[in-house]
Write a structure and sequence with these properties.
Protein name: Glycosyltransferase
Structural class: alpha/beta
Distance between the termini: 72 Å
Organism: Ureibacillus suwonensis
EC number: 2.4.-.-
Strand content: 15-25%
Number of domains: 3
Number of helices: 14
CATH topology of the largest domain: Spore Coat Polysaccharide Biosynthesis Protein SpsA, Chain A
Order of helices and strands: EHEHEHEEHEEEEEHHHHHHHHHH
Shape: globular
Keywords: Glycosyltransferase, TPR repeat, Transferase
Pfam families: Glycos_transf_2 (PF00535), TPR_8 (PF13181)
C-alpha cells in the first residue's frame, strides 16, 4: 500500500482546521502544514496533529506557498486540502479504498470538489481537481492566483469527493483582483490562465465591459483548455445579460457550442430565452438537450441543477402552456424526485389538484 503526505497552506484557520484534520488524519501517513502568517491559534492547533509545521513568508503567490509545502513531503504520494475542506464519511471510505488499491504506475489522481450545496445538502456546484500526485514526479503548482497543479503521465479519475465547508466570511473578497492588478502594474505578462481568471475576477466585481474585453482576448488564444473557453463564453453571456444586451448574450451562449456539446447550463439558458418568448417547442428542445448530457464526463465546472430538477420543472411549464397537461404533471414529478420540498414543485402540485378537481366537477 502506498504512503501519503497531506500538504496544506493555512492562515488564520483556527475555526476550521481541526475539523479538516480530524476528517483525514488516520488516512494519511504524514501531515505537512505551511503557515503564511497566522495571528490566531492556527499553528497551535496544527501542532496537535504534526510536528511538521513551517512558517512561510507570504508573497502574493499561492503556488509558491503550495510548492514550499510539497517540498517538505517525504511519502510516496502528496495529497492536498484547504483548511475549510473536509472528507465526509462516504468519501473517507472511498479514499481508504483508493489508497489500498492505487496502482504504483498512477502519477496523479483527480477528485471531485463540491463547493456549493442546496438545502438538502446535495452538491450544486462541482468540478475536478488533481488532489493526489506521485512525489517523485516533482509536479509543481503554477499561477500566483487560482493556482493549478501541472501533471502528466498516467492519470486516474476517482469518484472520491472533497467537500468545501466555509464557515467564515473572508475580509479579502477583492484580494485576488488586487493581486492581478498589482502584477499588471509591474508589467508582468499574463499566461492564458491568468487572463481567464483575471476576467472572472472582473466579472465577479461587476466590471462587465472590462471583463468582456479580456474574455475576448482570451478566446483568441490557441492551445487553451476547451473547458475554460466554454466557461469564458458562459461568463461573457452573463456579463452581456447584466448589461442588458440580449443579442450578445445569445451569441455568447451559442459560441460555447463550437468547443463541445452544449453544457446543460447553456441549454437551460437558451430554453429560458425561448420560454420567455412563449416559443414552447423550441424551449422544450433545449431543456431536453440539457438532460441528455452525461455530466460525469465533464472535467470542468458542473452545476447539477441544470441537468436535473431545473429542466424538468421548466418542461412542466412548457407542456402545460402547450396543453399537454398530463405530460406537465409527469415532469413536475420528476423535478420532485430531486427537490421534494421545492416551493415551485409543491405549488404546481396544488395547482394541478385544484385544476383537475374543477374539471372533474364540471363533468
Amino acid at each position: 500500500m502506498v504512503t501519503i503526505s497531506l500538504c496544506m497552506i493555512v492562515k488564520d484557520e483556527e475555526n476550521v482546521l481541526e475539523r479538516c484534520l480530524n476528517s483525514v488524519k488516520d488516512l494519511v501517513d504524514e501531515i505537512v502544514i505551511a503557515d503564511t502568517g497566522s495571528s490566531d491559534r492556527t499553528k497551535e492547533i496544527a501542532r496537535k496533529y504534526t510536528d511538521k509545521v513551517f512558517d512561510f513568508e507570504w508573497e502574493d503567490d499561492f503556488s509558491a506557498a503550495r510548492n514550499f509545502a510539497f517540498q517538505q513531503a517525504t511519502k510516496d504520494y502528496i495529497f492536498w486540502m484547504d483548511a475549510d475542506d473536509v472528507l465526509l464519511d462516504e468519501d473517507r471510505e472511498k479514499f481508504k479504498k483508493l489508497k489500498e488499491q492505487l496502482p504504483s504506475e498512477v502519477d496523479a489522481v483527480s477528485m471531485l470538489y463540491h463547493l456549493a450545496f442546496d438545502e438538502y445538502n446535495n452538491p450544486t456546484f462541482s468540478f475536478r481537481r488533481y488532489r493526489l500526485v506521485k512525489r517523485e514526479k516533482n509536479f509543481v503548482w503554477k499561477g500566483a492566483v487560482h493556482e493549478y497543479l501541472e501533471v502528466s503521465g498516467k492519470v486516474l479519475h476517482s469518484d472520491t469527493a472533497i467537500t468545501h465547508r466555509r464557515e467564515k466570511k473572508e475580509d479579502s473578497s477583492d484580494r485576488n483582483l488586487k493581486i492581478y492588478e498589482k502584477r499588471l502594474k509591474k508589467g508582468e505578462e499574463f499566461t492564458p490562465r491568468d487572463l481567464f481568471y483575471y476576467s472572472n475576477e472582473l466579472k465577479d466585481h461587476g466590471q462587465y465591459e472590462k471583463a468582456i474585453e479580456h474574455y475576448e482576448e482570451f478566446l483568441k488564444l490557441e492551445d487553451v483548455w476547451e473547458e475554460e473557453k466554454i466557461r469564458a463564453c458562459i461568463n461573457m453571456a452573463y456579463c452581456y445579460r447584466r448589461l442588458g444586451n440580449l443579442e450578445k448574450e445569445i451569441e455568447s451562449l451559442v459560441r460555447s457550442i463550437q468547443y463541445d456539446v452544449p453544457r446543460p447550463e447553456v441549454s437551460c439558458r437558451m430554453g429560458d430565452l425561448y420560454l420567455e418568448r412563449k416559443l414552447y417547442d423550441k424551449a422544450i428542445m433545449w431543456y431536453q438537450l440539457a438532460l441528455m448530457v452525461d455530466t460525469s464526463k465533464i472535467l470542468g465546472i458542473v452545476q447539477q441543477a441544470y441537468s436535473t430538477w431545473y429542466p424538468y420543472l421548466q418542461l412542466c411549464v412548457c407542456h402545460w402552456h402547450k396543453g399537454d397537461k398530463e405530460m406537465a404533471v409527469e415532469y413536475n414529478k420528476k423535478a420532485k424526485e430531486y427537490r421534494p420540498n421545492d416551493r415551485a414543485v409543491l405549488y404546481n402540485e396544488e395547482f394541478f389538484r385544484k385544476h383537475f378537481k374543477e374539471v372533474g366537477d364540471e363533468k
